[in-house]
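Page 42, continued from yesterday. The earlier attempt failed because a stray header line got pasted into the input along with the sequence. Redoing it now with the clean sequence only.
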Amino acid sequence: MPHADTLTVVHHDDTRTRFKDVRYELHRDGIRIWSAEGEHLVTDILMTQAYRQRATAG
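This time it went through. Structure tokens are written below.
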């Protein structure tokens, strides 16, 4: 299950919902998101953007 530090969901009406520090699963019918606030199911998705910050080795 992918992890994202920041996940942005762009809805069909061009509004955006942002989540921080989440795990998520993409499905044909939408995206299921687990965050500190609980579980979310979003079905009106136009696009998603997930970012993961990783510490550099060295």
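Notes: Residues 5 and 21 are 4 Å apart (CA to CA).
Reminder to self: strip header lines before submitting.
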